[in-house]
Design brief:
The protein is an all-alpha fold and 158 residues long. The protein contains three helices and no strands.
Length: 158
């Protein structure tokens, strides 16, 4: 129920109370009743003005509280937005750093694999040369073991 409705009810109760008082007393003359009515009316006006001031003060307080609440919510939103942006920047920086480190590790790994592959190729070539030299030495040994071939080899060398 609104405050103006409450005020109306209070005024009606006061007026009815006044009329009830006058009816029950049954005594008194008209000038005293009029004077009493004027005093009651003045008292009601004063009470009404006091209540209206309280309502105005309450409305002002509510308005100020709403403004403070709105300001607080806006400040909280701004703070949360700043924190989210900071966290996003930190996360992006971290991801970029990790990606850069991973890329560097991949480059070094690829270089190492290439180096190992080249060394294996050289080792394989060297191994082929050793096997070829072993075969030639074996042939030479066979030639030198056989006296007939050794003589032919010796003549050939002269």
């Amino acid at each position: 129920m609104e405050l103006s409705g409450i005020l109306e009810i209070v005024l009606i109760v006061l007026v009815l109370g006044l009329f009830g008082f006058i009816a029950l007393s049954g005594k008194g003359n008209a000038p005293d009743i009029e004077k009493k009515l004027e005093q009651d009316q003045l008292q009601r006006q004063n009470e009404t003005e006091r209540l209206e001031r309280k309502v105005a003060d309450l409305n002002k307080t509510i308005y100020e509280m709403q403004n403070n609440l709105n300001k607080g919510v806006l400040d909280m939103q701004n703070k949360m937005t700043r924190q989210l942006l900071e966290n996003n920047e930190k996360t992006n920086f971290s991801f970029q750093k990790q990606f850069s480190e991973s890329r560097q590790i991949m480059k070094e790994s690829n270089k190492t694999i290439t180096d190992i592959t080249n060394r294996l190729a050289k080792f394989e070539e060297t191994n082929k040369n050793v096997l070829s030299a072993t075969d030639k030495l074996e042939n030479l040994q066979n030639i030198l073991l056989n006296p007939k071939q050794r003589g032919t080899f010796g003549e050939f060398q002269l």
